[in-house]
Design a protein that fits this description.
Shape: globular
Helix content: under 10%
Order of helices and strands: EEEEEEEEEEE
Largest sheet: 7 strands, mixed
Radius of gyration: 14 Å
Distance between the termini: 40 Å
Number of helices: 0
Strand content: 35-45%
Number of strands: 11
Length: about 130
């Protein structure tokens, strides 16, 4: 069974940085678009960032643009989310996701129903 695995979460102070990683078991991420989402307690899961797989293009939500950077290292079969200048409102469980069946509509990268495979999530807590 295909599985995405997130790592790199933790407890940090406001203004600190973290780098999240998304790896895959049993398939090459290189050929798939990858999205990062997050879900805070009591809130809906929201899109954070997205990277295409051909001539990679990146997308960001307004809340993280300028602070977060998504990238991929195909040699390591990993997609990263570098998070700088973290704020308490960034506290959430972060998930990576992809679409394995069919073709994604890139313009809908922020829509949860565009994805059919999700990781288990990694907790990010930003608190002083």
């Amino acid at each position: 069974q295909v599985q995405l695995v997130e790592s790199g979460g933790g407890l940090v102070k406001p203004g600190d940085s973290l780098r999240l990683s998304c790896t895959a078991d049993r398939f090459d991420l290189e050929w798939y678009p990858i999205g990062w989402f997050r879900q805070a307690p009591g809130k809906e899961r929201e899109a954070v960032s997205f990277i295409t797989y051909i001539d990679p293009t990146t997308y960001y939500s307004d809340s993280v643009r300028g602070r977060f950077t998504i990238s991929r290292d195909n040699a390591k079969n990993t997609v990263y989310l570098q998070m700088n200048s973290l704020k308490p409102e960034d506290t959430a469980v972060y998930y990576c996701a992809t679409r394995l069946a069919g073709r994604m509509t890139t313009s809908r990268w922020f829509a949860r129903d565009e994805y059919d495979s999700w990781g288990q999530g990694t907790q990010v807590t930003v608190s002083s």
